[in-house]
Write a structure and sequence with these properties.
Length: 407
């Protein structure tokens, strides 16, 4: 038992990725059960303390991607800045806080509001523990250039405030707090973190495997990205949806520009690299849909796309990038070859299929052609593709490295 625990706790990404993979399945499994109760007559799910939509959004913004982000950053911060590796007692304490928080949230969801709120508060404490640990690396490292880490720190702070806002909404029922938790969590925390990681890593990974590759990482684009996501968040929180194109249009062109300059087409030669580039392309597609939605609202006052842009962003971009990056990190840090086999390739493309189905679910005329609602079908497809991925990759974070090296 001690040997198993020693292996599992040998590196922060092992513990955090395990929790992330677990949540990847639990989140959508619970959501599928809820959707079956809404859209079919098969059964009636037990009632939740708060509307299930708000729980689903909390999981998708904070209680799922955050574990992969924490695992990745606690591994890369010391490497990027030549700092000291994070001590075992720091990341293990954070793991126990976060897994206990998730357990309380699930229990409280079906029992008492104070248990749910306690779970979110414990999640906030776990978040603060990780953030403090990353800041220790940041402030004590000898590196001179820390502009990527500075952006990530601000984004993690925004995420911390987002979780705090969600907790305050639970105890006060004030819409102001929930509004920030939803839109601030997505546009000030999650999207900036993911874009910054892509900006830092996609050119680097590409340069490692593509011959005659020119690394392009324009520093000027990060401030523009920051302005655009902040502007979008403010307009969302003010419900000025028709004007989001002011910030989404330049961001969209910037994303497509970077995607092409970073070698999208050349990346298709190598699957493990291609998954990251394709995930980043989904960000541009999502912004295209956001712009379409905004301009249609501005000129015709019609909200024609519903939540299609949101799910292109969260499923198409976020989940695709998580699967691509987690696959790469898990393979590399378990001593395996950095190769995406056909199994991984199919699982990855299953995320894009899931995103497309969820986009189609916004159009009633398409739903009317099928017996099963597209929202339910999306959740089923999610499980069909990602459950096998978890079954394949979770043992890699539980078992010793195949090359016999520590970590």
């Amino acid at each position: 038992m001690n040997l198993r625990w020693t292996t599992f706790s040998a590196a922060p990404h092992r513990m955090m990725f395990f929790l992330g993979m677990l949540q990847l399945i639990l989140t959508i499994f619970w959501w599928l059960i809820d959707l079956l109760g809404r859209y079919t007559n098969w059964w009636h799910p037990p009632p939740t303390i708060i509307p299930s939509n708000w729980v689903h959004i909390f999981f998708m913004l904070y209680g799922l991607p955050t574990f992969f982000i924490f695992g990745f950053l606690m591994t890369t911060y010391p490497r990027w800045m030549n700092g000291q590796f994070i001590p075992y007692h720091h990341y293990s304490r954070a793991f126990f806080l976060l897994i206990s928080a998730i357990l309380l949230i699930y229990i409280g969801l079906f029992t008492k509001l104070f248990i749910l709120a306690a779970g979110v508060l414990l999640f906030l404490i776990g978040w603060g523990t990780v953030f403090y640990t990353l800041l220790q690396v940041y402030f004590h490292s000898p590196a001179n250039d820390k502009h990527y880490e500075s952006v990530l720190n601000l984004s993690l702070l925004a995420g911390f405030i987002g979780v705090l806002s969600y907790f305050l909404w639970l105890v006060t029922e004030q819409w102001l707090f929930l509004n920030f938790a939803l839109h601030g969590g997505l546009w000030l925390y999650l999207i900036p973190v993911l874009i910054t990681v892509c900006h830092r890593m996609l050119p680097f990974f590409s340069s490692c495997v593509l011959p005659n590759y020119q690394v392009i990482q324009p520093i000027w684009s990060l401030p523009i990205i920051g302005i655009c996501v902040t502007g979008h968040a403010v307009l969302e929180m003010q419900s000025w949806l028709a004007w989001r194109f002011i910030f989404d249009m330049p961001l969209m062109f910037l994303v497509f520009h970077h995607s092409l300059r970073w070698g999208l087409w050349r990346s298709l030669q190598i699957r493990l690299l291609a998954v990251l580039h394709i995930a980043f392309l989904w960000l541009g597609i999502a912004l295209l849909l956001y712009n379409w939605q905004s301009l249609t609202l501005l000129f015709s006052n019609q909200f024609i796309l519903g939540k299609a842009p949101l799910h292109a962003l969260t499923i198409g971009f976020m989940i695709s990038l998580i699967i691509g990056m987690a696959s790469r990190v898990t393979l590399g840090h378990s001593g395996r070859d950095l190769i995406a086999d056909t199994f991984t390739w199919i699982c990855f493309w299953g995320v894009s299929v899931t995103a497309l189905l969820r986009i189609f679910a916004e159009f009633l005329w398409i739903n009317s052609l099928f017996i099963l609602d597209f929202n339910v079908l999306t959740a089923i497809i999610w499980l069909l593709f990602l459950l096998p991925w978890v079954i394949r990759y979770m043992p890699m974070v539980l078992l010793p490295r195949v090359d016999g090296k520590p970590g």
